[in-house]
Amino acid sequence: MKTQNLDQWIEERIKPEEITKYMTGENDFIPQEEIFRQLIVNKEPDKSRLRDILAKSLEIKSLEPDETAALIHVQDPELLEEMKAAAFKVKKKVYDNRIVTFAPLYLGNECVNNCLYCGFRKDNALMKRRILSMEEIKKEIEVLAGKIGHKRLIVVYGEHPDMDVDYMVASIKAIYDVKMPARHGIGNIRRVNVNAPPLSVEELKRLHATGIGTYQVFQETYHRPTYEKLHPKGTIKGDYRWRLYVMHRALEAGIDDVGIGALFGLYDWRYEVMSLVYHGWELEKKFGIGPHTVSFPRLEPAYNTPYTTHSRYRVSDEEFKKIILVIRLALPYTGMIITARESAPMRREAISLGITQTDASTQIGVGSYAGRADGGQEGDKQQFFLGDTRSLEEVIGEFTEMGYITSFCTAGYRCGRTGKCIMDLLRSGTEGKFCKLNAVLTFREWVDDFTQNGIKESAEKVIQREIAEIKEQMPRIYPKFIAAYERIKNGERDLYF
Ligand code: SAM
Ligand code: SF4
């Protein structure tokens, strides 16, 4: 235990020079008054301007704040339909019909912060606290990679000296080390994305060296007065700018796939959407790299956490769909994640509005993958309650019925296709080619290794359609691709382009 000097540990976490070095003058990049102004002056956008904005988005160009504000205010049903059609086309152009699938893995629920909306907050005396040992982590991976067949994880850490960067590095290594026998070949985790509290540049360099995929931190709310109300003073998370500039530090540390997000339901969703776009712009301007992913969790009930059911900013289903649409159009190249916080019907609808990634077989109780084979939820061990606990196989079955292919591709960061490189490839449509090939190869692997209940027929149909498209659209690479595909069918694993 490293908890003896807890106060000192907390005191030393924030490095003010790692905030100010990215700032010009006194102001940060979230111009509160300007956002309110934009939202007011763009309240009644006319149809022809809106159509120009949609056309710009269809060219895979990021939208300006005033254009984003105009989309936020669209109410007219006809225009909303046009927005939906444009969002669908943008997604198709950049990501085709692929859905990337992953699982979250909570490694502990200890935390020194006191976020009012979170079941893990330190004052929640009813939470049963636990941090997984390396042996326990291994057991979780045996289920995730050996039984379910996941290849991609998002590992989640609280802010605590016993879950510091040493623990993060050791746990990520432990995860990558597990190799499980599967029906053919092995099951293993090939991409670990990380959701962790803001780290310093030195710590982020260490994380980068372990071979992580995306580093994800949500600002929760970009509205400063609300942020201060929900994250008590004196806690580490109470420092708005330490969190706001974490992606600058990550990019400086060499992690160039960064994931931003806001927790919707804490403040006015319109303000948060505008801020996410400002955040994306800031990163593009300073580093030439926009966010690899954007997340928009909605506030969910959490055990012994009354704030979650009392917030006056809770977001309705209609508003939530609008959020997805606007972000899809405003940041057309970015990956968009919807999680099992949402219900199955909402997730299904969200896919056609622009979502590119989702989780499945999700358990967020600490140690639950190995400990709760029935998939049950345990409020006193988890951060909030889930809306969709379907298995990966069920979710994939639904996708294949809808004509989508599930991709377990993890080639990007292993081939150096990250950051600016991947942004440029996505904008030009080139990355899509690699992704299409890798989606088929990895989906074939999963179908052959992990299906239990016969979704094979619809899966087979999707695979054959993809192969036919590859043959037609990429005749030059096709022979190489089909050779790799045959090798996978014969039991080889982890081949990628
Ligand atoms: N402790 C780290 C941090 O705060 O950055 C890791 C994050 S936390 C374990 C993952 C995310 O869950 C948070 O950033 C927050 O957006 C979200 N979250 C917290 N409480 C939630 C709730 N009641 N409902 C939905 N999402 C919640
Ligand atoms: Fe801790 Fe993160 Fe929960 Fe806040 S949101 S209490 S920092 S785990």
Topology (SSEs and partners):
Layout lengths: L5 H8 L3 H4 L11 H10 L5 H12 L6 H8 L4 H19 L2 E9 L27 H15 L3 E5 L8 H13 L2 E2 L4 E2 L3 E5 L5 H9 L5 E2 L7 H7 L9 H5 L1 H7 L5 E4 L7 H19 L5 E3 L11 H4 L6 H14 L4 E4 L5 H10 L3 E3 L8 H4 L20 H11 L2 E3 L3 H4 L4 H10 L1 H21 L5 H18 L4 H12 L8
Parallel strand pairs: 1-2, 1-10, 1-11, 2-5, 5-6, 6-7, 7-8, 8-9, 9-10
Antiparallel strand pairs: 3-4
Helix pairs in contact: 3-5, 4-6, 5-13, 5-15, 6-15, 7-8, 13-15, 18-22, 21-22, 21-23
This protein binds S-adenosylmethionine (SAM) and iron/sulfur cluster.
Characterise this structure:
The mean pLDDT is 92. This protein has 497 residues and is an alpha/beta fold. Helix content is 49%, strand content 8%. The protein starts with 5 loop residues before the first helix and ends in an 8-residue tail after the last helix. It has helices at 6-13, 17-20, 32-41, 47-58, 65-72, 77-95, 134-148, 165-177, 201-209, 224-230, 240-244, 246-252, 269-287, 307-310, 317-330, 344-353, 368-371, 392-402, 411-414, 419-428, 430-450, 456-473, 478-489; strands spanning 98-106, 152-156, 180-181, 186-187, 191-195, 215-216, 258-261, 293-295, 335-338, 357-359, 405-407. The strands form two sheets. It has an eight-stranded parallel beta barrel with strand order 1-2-5-6-7-8-9-10, surrounded by six helices. Strands 3-4 form a two-stranded antiparallel sheet. Bound molecules: S-adenosylmethionine and iron/sulfur cluster. Iron/sulfur cluster binds next to loops.
